[in-house]
Amino acid sequence: MQTAHEAWRRLEPVHGMIYFVPEARRRYADLGLSGRAGYFASRSAAFGEASAELVISTFYNFNPDAVRQAVDGAWDATTPQQVLDARYAAAGEALRRAGIHELPHVDEVLALTRRAAEAACEHAQGRPLFAAHAALPWPKEPVLRLWHAQTLLREFRGDGHVACLLSEGVGGLEALILHAATGEVPVGFLKASRAWPEDEWAGTQEHLRERGLLDGDSLSPEGVLLRRHIEDRTDRLALPAYAALGDAGCERLAELASPFGRAVVEAGLLHLG
């Protein structure tokens, strides 16, 4: 399970950069989508003209009021296909800027990642955001095929993660605060990007303290155990994809993926500003 996790984690920047790069913001703005509207429309466009309620349910940890405000009118300005085309074009442009297409072993990384993504497609039940993306055609360009494959693996894992949170009675804002308490991501970024009002954030923090999951602003021992349980369970639910590679294939992908993730980071594609 650990090698599968490492294979996903080390290649994840290849997908995750799409939420930060200026190439995406420019292309969404050209379609009349600015700010959060570009994010919500681009990630949900695989559903078609997704309603705000569908986005709220599948994205999970965003303030519903902010989602409604961002999604309202998005599909009057453009179409899902135009947004998808813009998203793939931005992904290709940004990844080429990072030199992903010139790295050694790109064909082998693509082959391994695609095999895992296609295996995930045999387990789409209960994973709506993944299933919507899995129904999209595979791009022709290798760098976009790699991005698409990692996108599928990210959404496959993400849907499983939401299922784990639900099963443990951890709501969207609660999950966000517990994540913030780990110190892995700046609290200010999480607050700004998920758009929860300060009074709701503070009230939910107090509720988590009452549950024994927070000690001040940090995770309590019980909170650490719960987070570990959820992450481990998420890893297990992601295994159907990586089982297709076997242990040796996962180790090989984890080994080869590091330069790809590093290239994305060094090119500044994950800048949180």
Broad structural category: mainly alpha
- Order of strands, widest sheet: 1-2
What's the number of domains? 1
| Count of alpha and pi helical runs | 15
Organism: Streptomyces variegatus
Pfam families: HTH_67
Protein name: SalK
InterPro entries: HTH_67
Explain this structure to me?
- It is a single chain.
- By secondary structure, the chain is an all-alpha fold.
- The protein has one domain.
- It is built from 15 helices and 2 strands.
- The longest helix has 26 residues.
- The chain is globular and about 50 Å long.
- It comes from Streptomyces variegatus.
- Pfam families: HTH_67.
- This is SalK.
Could you provide a short overview of the structure?
By secondary structure, the protein is mainly alpha-helical. It has helices spanning about 1-15, 20-30, 35-45, 50-60, 65-70, 75, 80-95, 105-120, 130-135, 140-165, 170-180, 185-195, 200-210, 220-240, 245-265, and strands spanning about 215, 220.
